[in-house]
């Protein structure tokens, strides 16, 4: 099951997605930049290395699609998008536990973040 800014949709994972290890070195990152789609998998929602890796890829100039695969929490969706992920792939079982509405609620990740709220405060 794929989670995007629009909610749940069917998986469209194909051969164009190249798996990138969480412990990638500079050589692996340089090679990854040549691919049009990357897949970064996490075993636990508590493993933050994926977020750092996606951010690093974007800072290196990667413009292709980056998908996070793993049963992360809806609360992590905005952080995943800000880090550079385009979407998240979760298991069907996890999709039943975390309702689509919980993900959609966090879909406006550009406007509803802590820093944006601080910028709009008048003092």
Describe the structure in your own words.
- This protein is of the alpha/beta class.
- It has a single domain, classed as Alpha-Beta Barrel (TIM Barrel), CATH 3.20.20.
- 36% of the residues lie in helices and 18% in strands.
- The protein is built from six helices and six strands, in the order βββαβαβαβααα.
- The chain has a six-stranded mixed sheet.
- The radius of gyration is 15 Å and the shape is globular.
- The termini are far apart.
- The mean pLDDT is 86.
Walk me through the topology.
Elements lengths: L1 E3 L2 E3 L7 E3 L6 H7 L4 E5 L7 H11 L5 E5 L7 H7 L3 E3 L2 H6 L2 H6 L8 H7 L3
Parallel strand pairs: 3-4, 4-5, 5-6
Antiparallel strand pairs: 1-2, 1-6
Helix pairs in contact: 2-3
Category by helix and strand content:
alpha/beta
The first-level CATH class is given as Alpha Beta
Instruction: Please indicate the count of domains.
Output: 1
The amount of beta strand, in percent, is 15-25%
Largest sheet: 6 strands, mixed
Q: What spatial order of strands do you see in the largest sheet?
A: 2-1-6-5-4-3
Uncertain stretches: none
Characterize the overall form.
globular
Q: Based on the structure given, which CATH architecture is correct?
A: Alpha-Beta Barrel
The overall pLDDT average reads 86
Distance between the ends:
44 Å
SSE arrangement, N to C: EEEHEHEHEHHH
Helix content: 25-40%
At the fourth level of CATH, the homologous superfamily is Aldolase class I
Task: Please tally the β strands and state the result.
Answer: 6
Rg is 15 Å
CATH topology category name: TIM Barrel
């Amino acid at each position: 099951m794929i989670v995007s800014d629009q909610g749940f949709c069917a998986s469209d994972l194909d051969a164009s997605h190249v798996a990138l290890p969480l412990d990638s070195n500079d050589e692996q990152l340089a090679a990854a930049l040549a691919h049009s789609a990357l897949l970064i998998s996490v075993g636990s929602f508590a493993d933050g290395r994926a977020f750092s890796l996606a951010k690093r890829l974007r800072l290196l100039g990667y413009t292709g699609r980056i998908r996070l695969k793993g049963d992360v929490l809806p609360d992590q969706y905005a952080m995943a998008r800000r880090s550079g992920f385009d979407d998240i792939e979760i298991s069907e079982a996890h999709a039943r536990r975390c309702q689509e509405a919980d993900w959609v609620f966090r879909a406006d990740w550009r406007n509803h973040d802590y820093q944006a709220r601080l910028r709009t405060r008048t003092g």
